[in-house]
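DM from R.C. (forwarded with permission)

"hey, sorry to bug you on a friday — could you get me a structure for this? deadline for the figure draft is monday and I only need the backbone to look sensible"
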Amino acid sequence: MKKNLLDVSGSSLLPTRIVRIRELEYLIGRKRSTIYLLMNRKSRYFDPSFPKRIRLSSSMNGGIGWFEHEIIGWLHGKAAERDNSISG
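My reply, with the result:
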């Protein structure tokens, strides 16, 4: 069985995994409404560093998802911000 691979850094290949909204809620500890506020440029909760969603179908009402490695990277960035604010 062939795995989907995504060249993230230009040198190493990582398996790609798509996270849907329910799993995203679990991973980041936020509900759907807050996730959409993080993505909304007009929201006061907008976070430009939050990973961009991807469309899983050509339909406007089709599913969306996020790359798991981008979500994990975003969480690591938040942890680094926390650590920097504590030490500095």
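R.C.: lifesaver. The CA atoms of residues 70 and 76 lie 10 Å apart.
me: no worries. The chain has a mean pLDDT of 87.
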